[in-house]
């Protein structure tokens, strides 16, 4: 009886000690370093490797999270719980996965990530802001910070605490299919726009240590500076290609915005698919570990891109065990697998157990991942609630997006002579024509990364205001608005229009699908310009993710506006066309004459643009009665 009591007492003491010890990493009053150290001391290799894995929503379940100790889930472009899913549905799904994570032995919460690159763009009814190419033209970092804060609220409204944004690429060639994700060809403009990071994450407290991530609570999200590094400098703008530049050039052009992002407490950095001078970035130890982590002092976690380690080899996945070794050894902490996670887990486990990958590398990765999770309060508040659902697509956010559209528009030409401007347009007219493939197409004006990865055409993808609807909302009640997508010249002449608004541009695309060697306006846009503008005074509004070929049509056009990819709030376009606000946007990209000039950036010896970086005519607001 005494022996049994002693054994029971010892068991009770051990259990009590374990509970006491467990309270350390779960206690928010403990110092961050102590919490991390305490938790890591309890973790098995299996649990540590699980933290390094990010899987796609489609292969996730509560059981998968529990059985494999998965550290993160993502929704890829267009990956949603259901078509037009409500924020309540999103919260329920995210929480379902989280319950699986919390049911593990140590209860480490997972972090759910999503591409929210111009608002919460995967989600129905979210506010879709202008793409970065337009925001760069605003030259307004405070506006961009407000957009970051609004985006964070809408992302959190769906229960998600992590956004794969911002893209801080410096696009040096508009033939690149991701150029609209870049704020500018000028690194100084990109650096200024990193102000979106404190918008997304919150303002860094004054006493913060440089490089330590910061996320300011349940209305903010962890941000992700991407794609490290040189993604915007590839040869001929080919996506995922090779950036050929010396180290000084890399530091001067492509690296500065990472300095700014780290100084603002960015939580994560995503590695680029591209190569630097022939070396795949996903396998570049010198730049990921040597420079980003050691030289710049980045203390958050480094994440791969989608199947990024697979693409270390050509063809992708040709030697996956080598890719795992090369990527993890280079310094990647979390791998966006995203589907075949057991293969990754098995390969990495084998490599650690056989001394191919040192345990110190695993510990570094896990320490960084846990640091972000602790800092953002995931351990204290792992479950999402419905308190922010009304933030999704809110009136306030749509007004902010409308302001961003107004400020992003760049007026390239106004009248066939400076003394005879066409803009602002009169709201009162007998009859006006609205034409062009992009005038009444919400999907086209939002561009790629909207609802679907590649974007969509049409008006039923989400809620918003097309430019045609905005025109109708803006003119006087007695003004007749005639819409004809592609009218012939005879139709235009016979109707005796007071003036015409022609809205043309590019069709939606994302990533490699957007690579273009010709950069032309999509048909029948050029035909519409020719037929309309040769018969009546016209303003051409170009809806595109980059400068496109317009020189052949320039003489025919009275006024031309670069509207970029404005998003859901088309009313911002007409706010400026009709003079309620003045034009103020300035080109953040050089507008070339011909594609044969490319690449051509400000400062180049052969710089001979149609419109230079910084160009933008201005108008003053007019009071129309």
How is this structure best described in words?
The chain is globular. 35% of the residues lie in helices and 11% in strands. It has 625 residues and is α/β, with parallel strands linked by helices. The chain has 21 helices and 17 strands. The termini are far apart. The strands form four sheets. A six-stranded mixed sheet has the order 12-17-16-15-13-14, sandwiched between helices. Helix 6 packs across helix 16 (395-408).
Can you tag this structure with a few keywords?
five-stranded parallel β-sheet, 21 helices, 11% strand, alpha/beta, globular, six-stranded mixed β-sheet, 625 residues
Uncertain stretches: 11-20
**Proportion of residues in helical segments:** 25-40%
Question: Which strand order spans the largest sheet, edge to edge or round the barrel?
Answer: 12-17-16-15-13-14
Which value, in Å, is the CA radius of gyration?
26 Å
The biggest sheet amounts to: 6 strands, mixed
Give the strand tally.
17
List strands and helices in order, with pairings.
Elements: H1 2-26, H2 32-42, H3 45-51, E1 53-56, H4 62-68, E2 72-75, H5 87-102, E3 111-114, H6 132-138, H7 141-157, E4 162-163, H8 187-193, H9 196-201, E5 224-228, E6 242-243, H10 247-254, H11 256-263, E7 268-271, E8 275-276, E9 279-280, H12 285-295, E10 301-303, H13 320-330, E11 335-336, H14 341-353, H15 359-375, H16 395-408, E12 410-414, E13 431-435, H17 442-446, H18 467-474, E14 480-484, H19 489-495, E15 499-505, H20 525-533, E16 538-543, E17 559-562, H21 571-577
Helix pairs in contact: 1-2, 2-15, 4-5, 6-16, 7-16, 8-11, 13-14, 16-21, 18-21
